[in-house]
Write a structure and sequence with these properties.
2 copies of one chain form a homodimer.
Chain A lengths: L11 E4 L4 E5 L10 E4 L2 H9 L6 H17 L6 H12 L7 H14 L5 H31 L5 E7 L15 H8 L3 E7 L6 H13 L3 E4 L4 H6 L5 E4 L3 E3 L4 E4 L2 H10 L4 E4 L5 E2 L16 H4 E2 L2 E2 L6 E2 L4 E4 L6 E4 L2 E3 L8
Helix pairs in contact in A: 1-2, 2-4, 2-5, 3-4, 4-5, 5-6
Amino acid sequence: MPLSLHHVPRALTWHPETRTLRIIDQRRLPEALVERELCTIDEVDDAIRTLAVRGAPAIGVAAALGLVASAAREAHPTRASIIAAIARLARSRPTAVNLPWAMARMRQVIDAGDADGALLLDALAAEAARILAEDIAMCEAIGRHGAALLADEACVLTHCNAGALATAGIGTALAPVYAAMAEGRRVEVIACETRPLLQGSRITAWELQRAGVPVTVCTDSMAASLMRDGRVDCVLVGADRIASNGDTANKIGTYSHAVAARHHALPFYVAAPSSSIDAAAPRGSAIVIEQRDADEVRRVGDRALAPADVRVHNPAFDVTPAELVTAIITDRGIRRPPFRFTA
Amino acid sequence: MPLSLHHVPRALTWHPETRTLRIIDQRRLPEALVERELCTIDEVDDAIRTLAVRGAPAIGVAAALGLVASAAREAHPTRASIIAAIARLARSRPTAVNLPWAMARMRQVIDAGDADGALLLDALAAEAARILAEDIAMCEAIGRHGAALLADEACVLTHCNAGALATAGIGTALAPVYAAMAEGRRVEVIACETRPLLQGSRITAWELQRAGVPVTVCTDSMAASLMRDGRVDCVLVGADRIASNGDTANKIGTYSHAVAARHHALPFYVAAPSSSIDAAAPRGSAIVIEQRDADEVRRVGDRALAPADVRVHNPAFDVTPAELVTAIITDRGIRRPPFRFTA
């Protein structure tokens, strides 16, 4: 039975009549499905900052819609108050490029005329709705292109969460899985847990299960032996940033799967919005890798997993060199090596 | 300054005058160093069963010494009560071969004559002390042979805990590190955390820190990118079982490090007691891999890391094929491929 895409959970929903933004509070996953309405700039800022909403595409969309939702609930929203809110939301997370990009688009609406009050709010709502629609369409295009790479019965290994819960649509790396399932094909997913923050076991496994896609969780260290046992048909991951030569920065651990895929002669696919391509970065070595807090590795909740003062290596990302990448799937289509992305 | 081996923690200590066995309670690591005295068969059985003492060599030694300690504290130990205790301890963990092996040696002491009372106890104490001394000597021999493979300044990546806390001596995979440090060489260790049970971050990091060896913890998924960055000189791991062709079963995740080491042209060493060689197993495919409880992956303490009912892949071990192994270090020396171990 084909999967209905209606069962794919949505990171956020927008109700244009009431200008209401609802999100799934991803901090509570997988233990509870809690939806929250974001009504004020404080709430939007807090949701982004604390990862209640996460994933570069999703937070850009959430910031744009949240700006409109909060302005619509203010007694007297002014150009100045909205401009201040834009500046604040643009800073709510440091890394993702989508956040300042979405806020720049909202700012352009303000700068484009001298509308004020309800007229300005209408123009901002229209722009936010366009950002939302573009994100949904981007996911669908990646799904359509990527599904063509999957066999009719495929076992896809993925890492981290580049799924519906990271976007406003059906995801990036998981979009081809959903698209193939919607065509009635049989796809199953192995979700690597993705230490240290466990987005794979917490979020990817939850959303796939919810959508009705067969999913198995494993630790990151099990991927290679699953490949050796013939249990994996391809690796399919997202990307945080792609250099113009195809080198791909993605969640730490991605590179180890790329090495293992090459060793076992399996395809390694990257799926990402074309906006993740950074044509200004000639190669992966130009991408700065953020080092994160040691306690992400040393603790889970209040449980010590390592000596409190032990030295820890905790980069947020690694870079997979283009020579290990079989194809890059974007909303614009499928690219194969040699990669040469231009602005 | 050379490391003094006196700082290497000991999984267990034996006081022959008082026939007293003390262990480090490894369930409490890394949060607390708690030593416990094991005085009764119930306490010995419980310590082995609940992993207070763990590591195949250590539990064989602990069972032999614990048998003597508990018999010495009984009012009237009989041949029958000691035989029953031996049978019970031999079953306290299912997998490790050292436990039934050590118990068989103690049983032979009983079967060898008709001594009873204090005389029998003396004979059992002497045999347990021999088992202890042999284990300490085995570790030292592995350390001596293995240290020759390390450069004067080396960064060793290891997985799980094949250290002092898994043996009665200075460990197996970590023995070459300790031996090289004791010679005044500069060795540092990268300890992969070893999901799901985290023996690397909890135990290996703790014992190395305690011993004064520089150690950095990383998640298992970071090993490949550390190799790519030139931060690793070799991989050195233990083994649960080695087939006669050199295929090596060890803690899950070992294989992914072997694949990554090969990709980066780094040596991959296995260190283990010669008793871990199973000449009856012609190759790794003959080794049965235990599947463990899904909640080891789905939960840490009372914290859910994945949906409660999600399917999980959780093998205890993986098998690294001999062609990825640069050398096997045992107490008998260093072997290089092609491996052909005989009984």
